[in-house]
Amino acid sequence: MTDHPPPAAGFVLTLACADRPGIVAGVSRALAEAGGDIRGAQQFGDEDTGRFFMRVVATLPPDGEAAVRAALGTLGAEFGMRWRLSARGTPRRVLLLASRFDHCLADLLYRWRTGELRIEPVGVVSNHPRGSYPALDFGSVPFHHLPVGADNRAEQEAAVWRLFQDSGAEFAVLARYMQVLSDDLSAKLAGRCINIHHSFLPGFKGARPYHQAHARGVKLIGATAHFVTADLDEGPIIEQDVERISHADSPADLIRKGRDIERRVLAQAVRMFCEDRILLDGVRTVVFGD
Ligand SMILES: Nc1nc2c(c(=O)[nH]1)N[C@@H](CN(C=O)c1ccc(C(=O)N[C@@H](CCC(=O)O)C(=O)O)cc1)CN2
């Protein structure tokens, strides 16, 4: 009976460092010496920032992960590299936040249930009660009603942060959560909190972009998924899309058409995050698409 070696597992390596010769060679050697097999690689050198970014998909033999982590540790120290190695397809634990409008929350939960999005929702937070979502089935996902007003913003945010930590969430998604996060919470969630803004940024920031768009008479509307920073609607952009509209569209028409754009843009951004396709490049992102 022939012994078959255990199947090699799939991994994604992402890295960023100051650009200089030898990075790709070093990474390839580290993987090869650990028995790894590169299945795909994307890289980008940003001439503005002098930074280099890379995403590698590789298989590793069972004992290869420890070996490659050791080699990457050494390489990382030599090149001043930030790197991350994660098993492909591992669901990412996410805390979902929403306010009155539920279309993005409903869409993410559907894509999770159908297996399209490799997420594990660890909780839903809303500043509105559960009864505000009659159309939604949260199933086994815990729902947390955390009302917020001018008199309890700090306490409410402390509860959100405690939930994020206690649930073991890896990232958060503001799925039309209409509260501005404080500088403190924004900093704690830096690079791991994705917001969907219902306009094609940098146009029409704030809480009512569709009314602004209608008043301005634009011919395209859009949506923007971005990382949350303390500066409202200024975070590094992950994904955007637009749709043509006309003079005949009322604000209500724009809100209706915008929902579809918001849903697909947010879902794409969440998928890219879960597949380690997004790297921060200062105030911008590098997105290694599929
Ligand atoms: N620190 C940040 N927090 C949030 C961001 C962000 O970019 N940085 N994005 C928002 C989402 N958003 C637009 O996409 C947005 C949400 C809320 C408001 C706003 O003015 N809210 C008012 C209250 C409105 C209400 O209660 O309905 C407020 O907070 O005083 C503007 C833009 C999520 N958080």
From TrEMBL:
Domain ACT: 12-92
Reaction it catalyzes: (6R)-10-formyltetrahydrofolate + H2O = (6S)-5,6,7,8-tetrahydrofolate + formate + H(+)
SUPFAM superfamilies, alphabetized: ACT-like, Formyltransferase
One annotated GO molecular function: formyltetrahydrofolate deformylase activity
Keyword annotations of the record: Hydrolase, One-carbon metabolism, Purine biosynthesis
Superkingdom: Bacteria
Active site residues according to the UniProt entry: 233
EC number: 3.5.1.10
Pathway participation: Purine metabolism; IMP biosynthesis via de novo pathway; formate from 10-formyl-5,6,7,8-tetrahydrofolate: step 1/1
Enzyme category, top tier: hydrolase
Similarity comment: family membership: Belongs to the PurU family.
Role noted for this protein: Catalyzes the hydrolysis of 10-formyltetrahydrofolate (formyl-FH4) to formate and tetrahydrofolate (FH4).
Annotated protein name in UniProt: Formyltetrahydrofolate deformylase
Species, as recorded: Rhizosaccharibacter radicis
Origin organism lineage: Bacteria, Pseudomonadati, Pseudomonadota, Alphaproteobacteria, Acetobacterales
